[in-house]
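Sequence and fold:
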Amino acid sequence: MPQYRLTYFDLRGRGEPIRMMFALKGIPYEDRRITLAEAPQLKGEFPFGCLPMLEVDGVKVAQTLSILRYLARENGCAGPDNLTAAIADALADQYADFVMSLQSWLVVTAGYVEADEDALYQSIYEPARAKNFPYFEAALKKSTTGWYANTADYTHADIFIAASLEWLTRLDKNADKLFDGFPLMEAHFKKIFALPAIEKHVAERPDARY
């Protein structure tokens, strides 16, 4: 088995889907967590100057979804064929696009920038959620298995979306209403976090706001 080292901040964020994949598959790895203060001095180590970064026997791979897809293919959860894998990829990419559309709200809500959080919630977050959540609810409604790509078991799309929704439940001021109108998304989210390996991971991981 390759030697894996994951480098990310001491947060959940973009690193958590990868950590969850390792946990689900029972794969040992080094979880290298750095502080935001350390990042500028270490930036030269990272491909494209950003995190997360996975080292596979010393070979560096960047970008959350690229890492997640690699691990999914290596461990049999990318989908049973290329077409299904492409569907899973598309769902994960669409959720990533949704997250990117939230950036101006996220940096304020997370405390990195000062601005009118309530105004950004209404002008950025709420419209983005209203646009994107129906896509994922529709995918689950179409699925006969309860997994996003209609696979027999989870794929990287299921892990990525659930992990990313988790930090949203911590940042959304109306998190108790996050899944209003989207019952299949809520059921899927709960199903992922009820998996024994994920329950163990959640119980043992360091605390973080997001």
